[in-house]
Amino acid sequence: MSTPLAEAKPEHSGKFYTLFVDGTEYSISTSKITGAQVMALAGIPMDAGLLLIEGDGTQRTVLPEEVIELGPGRRFGKAPRYKRGAR
C-alpha cells in the first residue's frame, strides 16, 4: 500500500526583495516601493519622515509619493526629530 507524499512548500514562492528599516528586515514581492509604503510597512507615522541610507552612509529624505527602486541592502530609517534649542 503506498502513501501519498506531502508536498514541500517553499518559504517564499517567486522572486522577493529585501529592505531594512531601522535595522528590521522586510521582504516584499515588488522591486519598487513608495516612501509611504515603506513607512506603512515599518509602522512609521507619516508626519515622522523617512530617510534613505545610501551605501556610502549618506542620508537623504524620501517623500511619501517618491518611488524607490529596491536593490541589494537598501536601507531606510525614521527621520530623527530635533527639538528647538536642544543640544
> How would you describe the shape?
globular
**How many strand elements?**
7
* Radius of gyration, whole Å: 18 Å
Strand order within the widest beta sheet: 2-1-7-4-5
Summarize the amount of helix as a percent range. Answer: under 10%
Biggest sheet record: 5 strands, mixed
Question: How much of the polypeptide forms β-strand, as a percent range?
Answer: 25-35%
Computed structural class:
mainly beta
Low-confidence stretches: 1-10
Mean pLDDT: 84
Number of separate helices: 1
How many domain modules? Answer: 1
Spell out the helices and strands N to C: EEEHEEEE
CATH architecture: Roll
Description:
With 87 residues, the protein is mainly β. The protein has a single domain, classed as Ubiquitin-like (UB roll). Helices cover 9% and strands 33% of the residues. A five-stranded mixed β-sheet has the order 2-1-7-4-5, covered by helices on one side. The protein has a two-stranded antiparallel sheet with strand order 3-6. β4 and β5 form a beta hairpin. The chain starts with 16 loop residues before the first strand and ends in a 9-residue tail after the last strand.
